[in-house]
């Protein structure tokens, strides 16, 4: 079997990391991989060990020339199927290119943002199978008219091993300039509106009054950085809220956190939540999208209504006031990852979709 993968992400987190996991696992199973991704991307460099890489220009949702670029590659490499892993133009342009080339198409849907029913009917007609990376996303697609015959669910996954190493607290405190007695809360998310950082900042003055050693680290980059910094300044929290930016050493950082908070308004699943659970960190998060699959309320964290700063503060209170409860949730989170979010399970799930589709199309497996 030969599979051509298309991923528009440039950095190795989120969907691009899932693609790399999949390439590695499929290669071990004897599958020939071809990867199309942006020129100069981290995925192009790392993926070369497991796939024939075509690094090309990918300029986003309105890059209509991408159709021709992908069509020519598909015709040249002659895959059994095409797997479109991202939006950023790949979902539509890649679907058109594969249809023109007469090759079956699988598309992975990673976000739970709603779409108009007419758009679902038109866009997903390009795809033979749509793989939701959480049941939450699957429910959204089904509610918008996606036929059950086309929809499958294969959860995203992580390798927990890097996150199981003991935390080096002295290094952590020195790295971020934190006091020895601090309580460290982390948010690991792009600095964009739908991640809900402002609700934590709204809750923070009262929390800081109750926990004098509390510090919040907002890991990530994004267009809202300057506005969030201004909110922090206006609330007099500049000495309590830190902006470390994007970090590629989360396996070293996460075990040192006391709590991870994820107040998102929308979320397909949340890879950072899986990583936090793997590291044994309790979580407070919004009850939206696929988050309840990664954070089981009362098991490895607490869920609150989205956009509710009061409920968010109350949940944080509960865990900070009960360290034994928090430790127990951390341990149960590690067990949850091992049980339901393994990389091998994700690989086998996608491979099952490939085999089902090729059998339906009567394409013999090589």
UniProtKB/TrEMBL annotation:
Q: Which GO terms describe its molecular function?
A: glycosyltransferase activity
As recorded in UniProt, its EC number(s) are: 2.4.-.-
Domain of life of the source: Bacteria
Q: Does the keyword Disulfide bond apply?
A: no
Q: Which organism is it from?
A: Methylococcus capsulatus
Keyword annotations for this protein, in alphabetical order, are: Glycosyltransferase, Transferase
> What does the record give as the organism's lineage?
Bacteria, Pseudomonadati, Pseudomonadota, Gammaproteobacteria, Methylococcales
Which SUPFAM superfamilies does UniProt cross-reference here?
A: UDP-Glycosyltransferase/glycogen phosphorylase
Name assigned to this protein: Glycosyltransferase
Q: Identify the residues that the record assigns to the Glycosyltransferase subfamily 4-like N-terminal domain, covering every copy.
A: 14-160
């Amino acid at each position: 079997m030969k599979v051509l993968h298309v991923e528009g992400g440039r950095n190795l987190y989120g969907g691009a990391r899932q693609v790399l996991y999949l390439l590695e696992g499929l290669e071990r199973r004897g599958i020939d991989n071809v990867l199309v991704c942006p020129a100069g991307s981290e995925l192009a460099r790392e993926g070369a060990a497991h796939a024939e890489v075509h690094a090309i220009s990918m300029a986003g949702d309105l890059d209509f020339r991408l159709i021709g670029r992908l069509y020519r590659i598909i015709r040249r490499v002659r895959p059994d199927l095409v797997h479109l892993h991202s939006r950023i133009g790949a979902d539509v342009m890649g679907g058109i290119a594969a249809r023109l080339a007469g090759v079956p198409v699988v598309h992975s849907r990673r976000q739970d943002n709603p779409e108009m029913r007419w758009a679902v009917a038109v866009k997903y007609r390009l795809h033979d199978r749509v793989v939701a990376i959480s049941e939450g996303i699957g429910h959204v697609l089904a509610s918008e008219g996606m036929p059950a015959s086309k929809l499958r669910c294969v959860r995203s996954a992580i390798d927990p091993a890097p996150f199981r190493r003991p935390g080096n607290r002295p290094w952590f405190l020195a790295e971020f300039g934190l006091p020895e007695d601090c309580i460290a809360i982390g948010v690991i998310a792009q600095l964009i509106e739908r991640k809900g950082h402002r609700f934590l900042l709204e809750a923070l003055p009262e929390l800081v009054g109750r926990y004098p050693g509390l510090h919040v680290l907002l890991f990530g980059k994004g267009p809202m950085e300057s506005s969030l910094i201004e909110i922090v300044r206006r609330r007099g929290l500049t000495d309590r809220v830190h902006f470390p930016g994007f970090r590629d050493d989360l396996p070293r950082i996460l075990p040192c956190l006391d709590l991870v908070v994820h107040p998102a308004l929308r979320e397909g699943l949340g890879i950072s939540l899986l990583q936090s659970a793997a590291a044994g960190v309790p979580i407070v998060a919004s009850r939206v999208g696929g988050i309840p699959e990664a954070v089981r309320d009362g098991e490895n964290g607490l869920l609150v209504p989205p956009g509710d700063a009061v409920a968010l503060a109350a949940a944080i209170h509960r865990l900070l006031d009960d360290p034994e409860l928090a430790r127990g949730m951390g341990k149960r989170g590690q067990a949850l990852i091992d049980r339901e979010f393994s990389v091998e399970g994700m690989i086998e799930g996608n491979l099952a979709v490939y085999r089902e589709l090729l059998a339906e199309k009567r394409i013999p497996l090589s």
